Fold this sequence. Notes:
This protein is α/β, with parallel strands linked by helices and 188 residues long. It is built from 8 helices and 5 strands, in the order E-H-E-H-H-H-E-H-E-H-H-E-H.
Amino acid sequence: MDILLMGPPGAGKGTQGAILAERLGLPKFATGDLLRDAVKRGTPLGLQAKSVMEAGHLVSDDIILGVVREELGRAQARRGVVFDGVVRTIPQAEGVAKILADLGRKMDAVLFFDVTDDAILDRLEKRRQIDGRADDDPAAVKVRLKAYREQTAPVLAWYEQRGGVIHIPAVGTVEDIADRVREALKRR
């Protein structure tokens, strides 16, 4: 089963993705993790990504899709994958759809973690106080939310046009949200 998790920064994709991946016995793919692993393993795409990242630029859709293709070809991904925010642009959505189709698969579910900006700002401020993450500073979070709305939110519309988005209210305890995810996937 291939599942894509979407939502703004701080919506809980990483937390819920880890829970879901463990429950289903599937690997979890997150863009940053995939790129760092490819760099660490010294793959040709990893080396390309490394030079782009070291120059301070965003990694291109072609490199990201190449890394996704490589990872989907690995044995642990044959039964499916939990994609944690991997698809961030429409070209990436189209590319992942093609890669999956080439493997005789499709995106089985798209889960959108729905949460207000105020709740996100509150969550990330708490995380910043605990973890000390500089990217959770309120000003940085506002920049990330703006970038998300401009770049990634249109991908949600792309998936909605294809009829495959399940909206998950991402408020409450981690367990409450995990229960909503479990129930939503049972109905699929």
